[in-house]
Amino acid sequence: MPFSFHTHSGQFCRHASGDLESVVQAAIAKRMLVLGLSEHIPRSRAQDLYPEEEGMTPDDLHQMFGAYVAEAQRLRAKYTGQIEILIGAETEYITSTTLSEVAALRSKYALDYLVGSLHHVDGMALDFSQEKYDLLVDHFGGDRAALFSRYFDQQLDLLKALQPEVVGHFDLVRIFHPPTLADPLALAAVRARASRNIDYAISYGAVFEVNSRAWKKGLRDAYPQRDLLREILDKGGRITISDDSHGAGDVGMYYDRLLGYLRELGAHDLCYLSRVDGLRVQTLVMEGATDHEFWAANGLT
Questions:
Q1: CB–CB of 27/35 below 8 Å?
Q2: CA 37/CA 69 separation, integer angstroms
Q3: Is 190 exposed, middle or buried (0-12, 13-18, 19+ CB in 10 A)?
Q4: Which of 85, 18, 27, 37 is closest to 298 using CA atoms?
Q5: How far apart are CA 210 and CA 259, in angstroms?
Q6: Nearest CA among 80, 89, 79, 92 for reference residue 109
Q7: Widest CA span of the chain, in angstroms?
Q8: For residue 187, what is the domain's CATH number?
Q9: pTM of the prediction?
Q10: 154 near 93, Cβ under 8 Å?
Q11: What's phi and psi for 129, nearest 5 deg?
Q12: Residues sharing a CB contact under 8 Å with residue 234, sequence separation 6 or more, in sequence order
């Protein structure tokens, strides 16, 4: 598809690779029309730094985020006319103060949009590794339904506090859940929480990303999985697509499978963000997006 709104680079995200400009160049080479840059919001506690950030401090992360915004602005000016670049960020929600910190950073840097993502539950990392996920399961006494319920409760907190334009990998909580075990989302109490969040996001006009990185993690479907994506579509929810790239080599990753996934579920119209007047970001609809020339140009039909 001719856009992605969830991207990272090794220049500003230590678990990604390469520089930000190479990500932009890769998107141009694939004839994308709009590219949303969304480096992670900096974390403010030393205990929340990841192993690859050893030797860094929260102050370093904040300085790096400022450098990211400056570089993104430079790239937007440099590549004007070749691709539209939006400057955003991917959220965090770790402690009770995180959401206000995100709101302050959005205002400080006048970000175009937010990707509303939850990577922690009760302050513990959700998607870093199988080992950390298992520790999170242990935190809930092995009750995976309780973990899933808490994830969706905290996701609702994030949605209400920030109202992000793009809802990131809606069901990330499934990332390391063994397919051999029963799906907690099959339980009425858990599914009701997910449905509640879908309803709320639709109510304020959010766009749900269909995120192809799930296939890199070995999941059957993109995020959200087909049960939730069907519900979103049936309720009239708006969707876009993202590769969640962590470097230039990931740009457009698994978009061939993504095209088939969208067509299988009858999702032919996609939304995208654009600074249509040069200042204010709006959500636009691309009708018949699964038949756009982008797919054939990249050999994906």
A1: yes
A2: 9
A3: buried
A4: 27
A5: 11
A6: 89
A7: 54
A8: 3.20.20.140
A9: 0.97
A10: yes
A11: -165, 165
A12: none
Structural domain including 43 reads 3-297
Tell me which residue has tokens 């939304």. 271
Indicate the residue type of 123. Answer: G
Find how far residue 237's CA is from the centre of its chain.
16
* Contact status, residue 236 vs residue 206, Cβ threshold 8 Å: no
**pLDDT digit of tens for each residue in the chain (301 aa)?**
589 999 999 999 999 999 999 999 999 999 999 999 999 999 999 999 988 999 999 999 999 999 999 999 999 999 999 999 999 999 999 999 999 999 999 999 999 999 999 999 999 999 999 999 999 999 999 999 999 999 999 999 999 999 999 999 999 999 999 999 999 999 999 999 999 999 999 999 999 999 999 999 999 999 999 999 999 999 999 999 999 999 999 999 999 999 999 999 999 999 999 998 767 899 999 999 999 999 999 998 8
Specify whether the CB–CB gap between 71 and 20 falls below 8 A.
yes
**What stretch of H or E contains 272?**
strand 270-275
Give the Cα separation of 111 and 164 in Å (integer). Answer: 11
Q: How many CA atoms does the CB half-sphere of 47 hold within 13 Å?
A: 6
Number of structural domains found in the chain: 1
Q: What angle do CA 110, 38, 213 make, to 5 degrees?
A: 160
